[in-house]
Amino acid sequence: MAKNKDCNKKINLKKIKKRLNILSFFSIVSVSFFIVFIFLFLTDTFNLKNENKKLLEEKKVQIYNLYLGDIFKRILLLVNSTPFVDYLRSGRETRIDLESEMLNNFSHYIDEEIKGYKIISNNNNDLIFIGKESNFNLLIELCYINDKLNFEMGRCAAKLYIYFDEDEILNKIKKFDPFIEKCFKCNAFEIKNGSIINGLYISKSDNFKIKFNIKNMQNYSKIINFIIISFLVMVLICFLTFYLNHRLLNIYIYIPLTKLFNYVKNDSEKQSFILSEVNEIADKVEEFKNNAQKNEKIKQQIEFSKLASQVAHDIKSPLVALNIFFAKATQLPEDNRILVRNAIQRIQDIANSLIFKHQELNNQNKNVIEDIEPHSVQLLSSLIESLISEKRMQYREYLEIEIEGKFGVNSYGLFSRIQPKEFKRMLSNLINNAVEALNKKGNIILFLNSKNDKILFSIKDNGKGIHPYLLPKLMKRGASFGKKEGSGLGLYHAKVLSEQWGGKLELNSEVAKGTEVLLTLPKASEPTWFISTLNISFDSTIVIIDDDASIHNIWDDRFQIFLKQEYNIKIIHFSNPENVISWFTTENIENIIFLCDYEFINHKMNGLDLVSKLNTHLQTILVTSRFEEEGFREKCEKMGIKMIPKNLAYFVPIKMLPAKEKPYAILIDDDLFIHTIWRATAAEKNIRYFQSAESFMNEVERFDKSTPLYIDSHLGEGLNGEDVAKKIYEMGFRDIYLATSYDACFFPPMNWIKEIRGKEPPWFN
Questions:
Q1: How much is the pLDDT for 2?
Q2: Residue 358 has pLDDT above 70, yes or no
Q3: Signed CA dihedral, 346, 349, 355, 358: sign only
Q4: Fewer Cβ atoms within 10 Å of its own Cβ: the N or the C terminal residue of the chain?
Q5: No. of H helices and E strands in the chain?
Q6: Helix-strand-coil split of the chain, %, nearest 5
Q7: Which residue ranges form the domains of the chain, and what is each CATH number?
Q8: What residues are paired with 736 via a beta bridge?
Q9: Which of 540, 545, 546, 547 is nearest to 563 (CA)?
Q10: What integer pLDDT is reported at residue 269 of this predicted model?
């Protein structure tokens, strides 16, 4: 009996059930409080609505002022123009002779929003009129002094009516911001009588009121509704969870264990009951086992992702060399060239596919949720190359369809501000259209080139083509041609996207010959991490660090022309970072450039670690395939390190900078008398003279940094020579003297000044 009491005391199932219920309840309450906290936090975004409205109003004022400045600048040019002033100064008969020239002059200042001009005398008599009148106009007083407009002091010769088109004004303002729209109930911008703008006196303003708004792209009401609905759903889920948890505890734990313990306590002989409960426990064990296997599979996917990324990196380096070899192997027979090209393309596709898998698995593991994609500056050749590989893999069963990329001589370093995922999705749809037009046989070529400030990209196929009368219709929403299930959104969506990016989309086609989709995009400024031109100066030492011999061969080939000529260029090769460190610590080389890989197989140190170790941030250029990773680019930008995409190493322009000039001395002084003294006594010495710091800064790159500089303390206009000397010191010059008539004790200690001396030439000492 004592033993049974002990068992009952230790195994109190009601107490266990009570504790589990309390735990579940507190878990739900905690989750609810957390949701409430998120709700309160997100409602703060609603408070930003007023702030956003204020910012939009400020932006409206800025746009209005910009527009007024632009239009009144044009009016000011008109009223100050020589034909205009001559006409006003002339008498009645002379004005008749000048009328033709005056009308011709007026025609240059009539555009979309300015519909006409009319000059009237001070007695309100019409003198000359051109264009059309409108109720939307301004009257300007024309007062001149010395043939220049001056309302305050000038003599008023006449008045000028300017007639405007209200709708065209709004269209012109829309060019400042595409989200501007006309409004009727908003406050109007108006020019009041007696206003002075750009020196122009507005004596009368008829109906010159401009009403416009900027669309608020943030829909706060949807955010609030989403939060409220989400909160109600989460509350419902919490109560359902509590109910189901309570029910499951009863069914799977409390009731079975109660029966099992009653069976043991009562010494029952129902073997089937024990077998049933054991089976339930076995099922639970199997469930835990499956969950463990699932977790193990996720770990394996992560390891595969890392391996895929490494293999892709290892493949890409020799692939660059293969592409270069193929481009030069012009003597190969055509059959062999086709075989080699297909093999290289296949390797390229495999490498890009591995990178795509790596990114896809990373996104899955991070539970990435796609939002509205932001605009960013992107290297187009990289996006297009990866897309070509994806489409080749997609259509690899169509053996007679060839998808090829051709990049022009001006395609290196073409950046545009786009949405990269939308860009690839758009091109993917266009390639799909081209494949459908080929009927399982033909060629699709993607061209990339540039002209002036525009990027030219096209997708061309030799399919069945499109009838001319259908071409204009295909750019409209819902229009489709030759596809049973076509939605008609592909080309329309591409057109809308291209216009959002500041470009345009054109469609050219000829029946039985094929179709070409031409995309024109504006060039974007190159990002700070990108090397547009590899500048090499005389007497440079170029250190190439890469664990792939093919990359060393590529750089040797690129620099071959500079080694043949007398530039005194030296090339040094390393395959691992440790040897670089040993070499660098024993050498004292000033003019040095490092072309360094990022990843080194079987070495703990990477390229960034090496740069930090040597402290050569400004002299190092990373040559890597990792440039596509946003986090990696940001890290390099913070460190001040620039990059060259490894697959573009053979295409980066290399420029030899001219040799640095090293005169005997450089004098910066605003006193020309001092210049005369130095010139008179310099004999044959090569002295460079500058009268201002600005003129020297414009030519500073021409001079060797070991050249002695003599700088006056007072350079005019309140500019101190000490401050200029400090800026020059930060550029790398070290032999800097302050040439002044003041005593040295007059100045504080300045470590960037080598010596404070007089203004006499240094050769007098």
A1: 41
A2: no
A3: negative
A4: N
A5: 20, 30
A6: 50, 20, 30
A7: 58-214 (3.30.450), 372-480+490-522 (3.30.565.10), 534-656 (3.40.50.2300), 665-757 (3.40.50.2300)
A8: 709
A9: 540
A10: 47
Cβ atoms of 22 and 266 closer than 8 Å? no
User: What is the Cα–Cα distance from 168 to 186, expressed in whole angstroms?
Assistant: 19
* Assigned token pair, 704: 């060797």
Start-to-end C-alpha separation, the chain: 118
Beta strands in 713-762 (DSSP E): 736-739, 755-757
- φ, ψ for residue 410, nearest 5 deg: -100, 15
The pLDDT of residue 610 is above 90: yes
- pTM here is 0.47
Comparing C-alpha atoms, which of 564, 13, 443 is closest to residue 256? 13
Token code pair at residue 223? 């955010």
The whole-number average pLDDT for the span 100-127 is 83
**Three-point CA angle 108, 112, 116, nearest 5°:** 60
Query: For position 265, what pLDDT does the model report?
Result: 57
Q: Are 140 and 201 in contact (CB under 8 A)?
A: yes
CA separation, residue 75 to residues 115, 168, 236 (Å): 13, 17, 67
Q: For residues 80 and 370, which has the higher predicted lDDT (pLDDT)?
A: 80
pLDDT for residue 250 is more than 50: yes
Phi, psi at residue 529, to the nearest 5°? Answer: -80, -15
Crossing angle between the packed helical segments 607-614 and 630-639, to the nearest 10 degrees: 10
Question: Residue holding tokens 């000048």?
Answer: 98
Q: Tell me how long the chain is.
A: 765
* Cβ neighbours of residue 747 closer than 8 Å, sequence gap 6 or more: 713, 722, 738, 753, 756
H or E segment to which residue 742 belongs: none
Q: Which amino acid is at 532?
A: S
Position 304 scores a pLDDT of: 62
CA distance 431 to 405: 12
d(C-alpha 165, C-alpha 115), whole Å: 6
DSSP designation for 254 = I
Torsion, Cα 246 250 252 253, to 10 degrees, reads: 100
Does residue 362 surpass a pLDDT of 70?
no
As beta bridge partners, residue 142 has 158
Name the nearest CA neighbour of 527 among 740, 732, 690, 379. Answer: 379
The tens digit of pLDDT for each residue in 464-513 reads: 988 888 888 887 765 555 555 444 457 888 899 999 999 999 999 999 89
- What average pLDDT does the structure give for the chain? 79
Q: Which two tokens stand for residue 497?
A: 């996207």
Tokens of 253: 């734990």
The answer to whether 551 and 659 have CB atoms below 8 angstroms apart is: no
Q: Distance between CA 427 and CA 517 in Å, rounded?
A: 10
348: which 2 tokens?
């390229």
**Please, which pLDDT band fits residue 75 given cuts at 50, 70 and 90?**
confident
Q: Tokens standing for 349? A: 């596709």
For every residue of 634-658, which 3-state class applies, written as one string?
HHHHHHCCEEEEHHHCCCCCEEECC
Q: Which tens digit of pLDDT belongs to each residue from 531-579? A: 989 988 888 899 999 988 888 988 998 888 887 666 788 999 999 999 9
Q: What is the DSSP string of 32-55?
A: HHHHHHHHHHHHHHHHHHHHHHHH
Tell how strand 709-712 and strand 736-739 pair up.
parallel
Q: Indicate whether 368 pLDDT > 50.
A: no
| The token pair that represents 589 in the structure block | 């080389």
Identify which of 144, 124, 255, 130 has the alpha carbon closest to the alpha carbon of residue 200. 144
What letter does residue 703 receive in the DSSP assignment?
B
